[in-house]
Amino acid sequence: MSTIAAISTATGNGGIGIIRMSGKKCFEILEKIFIPYNKKNNEINGYTIKFGYIVDPETKEKIDEVLVSFFIEPKSYTTENMCEINSHGGIVVEKKILELCLRNGAEIAEAGEFTKRAFLNGRIDLAQAESVIDLINSKTDNEAKASINQLEGNLSKKIHSIRDKLLDVMADIEADIDYPEYDIEEVTNSKIKNILEEIRNDLYKLSNSFENGKILKEGVKTIILGKPNAGKSSLLNTILEEERAIVSEYAGTTRDTIEEFVNINGISLKLIDTAGIRETEDKIEEIGVKRALKLSEDADLIIAIFDGSKQLDKEDYEILNIIKNKKAIILLNKMDLGDLNFENDDTIKKSCKNIIKISAKNGEGVDVLYNTISEMFKTNEIAMNDGVIITNIRHKNQVDKAIKSVEEAIVSNESGLPIDIVSIPIKQILVDLSAITGEDVSEDIINEIFSKFCLGK
Ligand code: GDP
User: Fold this and answer.
1) CB 3.0 to 4.6 Å from 450: which of 58, 116, 251, 281, for a disulfide?
2) Rg for the chain (alpha carbons), in Å?
């Protein structure tokens, strides 16, 4: 494999910048462009750092004063010889050093190529490699914890334990096919049944964990519903202005939707269509029941806000109808104006059990809202739990495929088909699961996974 190089730190000015190289020729290239301060020390030892200068070998121009860390194969991130040049953080210096590496024999690394090499060289499996990008992209503590859990190989261990059970069954089946004179088929049939049912249970648990995993990874998809003047934008502003709410904006899929992430008690809320809320300057506009219905369909949480200083009207009842049987919180707003008019309204009480009095304007009651959200999405427990959580849609699809194969195998086993026919879907379960850890996966899929990485990782 070629020797690759890339700038691994984020672009822009910073305290330091890191240029990484990996491959057979990495120390040879480094020798041409790096002059250690202690010139007598030519030895290269793994896990050591040398101080010195990067100098252009042609012009003799000194580029920067740097620290270089050394990793000797196989004890490195990629399992190849590696070095990391810690320069001063500034795009000009970093680029010049990278160019020197390239001019002296390195090739520019593709996105994710260092991690891809760690995978291809067998240091980590595919599920672990995918957790690296999840860790980098984590928006909350819990999400990072789930990624670390996967990086440590907990999902892979679970998959391997299921695979071992299947291999055990396969060994029995092979014995049965190879030595038909021994009458062991009946034992094998009941053994297959038990093990397949056990595996189906394990796989169901994994598949179901995806809902929690998705919330950890993508945030709780939240919409704020309420008719004009109920206080939606005041609530939004109060949430966004809170010190603890870390906000980031992402352009949504359509031109005018904005998704905003806020971090509330460690739970990431993905607020949908907030642009729409802010835009309704002319308050005459109807809430658009159809639109509200559509948005609420795939929301994980609906916050329905009502103007508590007024009586409920037809539109309010429509909103109450929408949130029935959904994960929702009712906010009775404008409590600062005195007694709320419909606190004891039966329709309200029936449509949702989380009812909170607040003042979106002065922030009263917002704490209760936050605590309620934490209670509803106890991701703390999810992340702490050493149970394995699936956070990645590719893994979930593979697990679901495996479940189908398990069911097929159970049916053919129960209907008394010959054992070699039963073994076909069992082999397929192995294939489906191996794609998660990467033992059996096409090059296209591998390339697609790593193309989502950042450069230098
Ligand atoms: P939206 O149309 O649902 O986004 O409602 P706004 O947030 O724009 O609020 C409508 C009006 O109600 C504005 O004049 C706000 O100042 C006022 N308002 C919102 N929340 C409160 C509150 O908690 N107390 C009081 N007194 N007024 C509020």
Assistant:
1) 116
2) 29
Residue for token digits 């929690």?
A: 212
Q: Which helix (H) or strand (E) holds 6?
A: strand 4-7
Eight-state DSSP code of residue 454: P
Mutate to test the pocket of ligand 1, among 281, 361, 364, 366 (most ligand atoms within 8 A of CB): 361
* Cα separation, 36 vs 206, whole angstroms: 52
Q: Of all protein residues, whose CA lies closest to atom 11 belonging to ligand 1?
A: 229
- pLDDT bucket at 415, cuts 50 / 70 / 90: very high
CB–CB of 151/135 below 8 Å? yes
Tokens 């009263």 belong to 364
> Is 336 touching ligand 1 by the criterion CB < 6 Å?
yes
Between 327 and 291, the more confident residue is 327
CA–CA separation, 330 vs 333, rounded Å?
A: 9
Q: What is the pLDDT of residue 4?
A: 97
Q: What is the largest CA-CA distance in the chain?
A: 88
Helix (H, G, I), strand (E, B) or coil at 36: strand
- Can you tell me whether residue 455 is helix, strand or coil? coil
Helix and strand totals (H; E) in the chain: 17, 14
Residue 162's contacts (CB-CB under 8 Å, 6 or more residues apart) are 199, 202, 203, 433
pTM across the whole model = 0.71
Q: How many CB atoms lie within 10 A of CB 93?
A: 18
Cα 364 to ligand 1 centroid, rounded to whole Å: 13
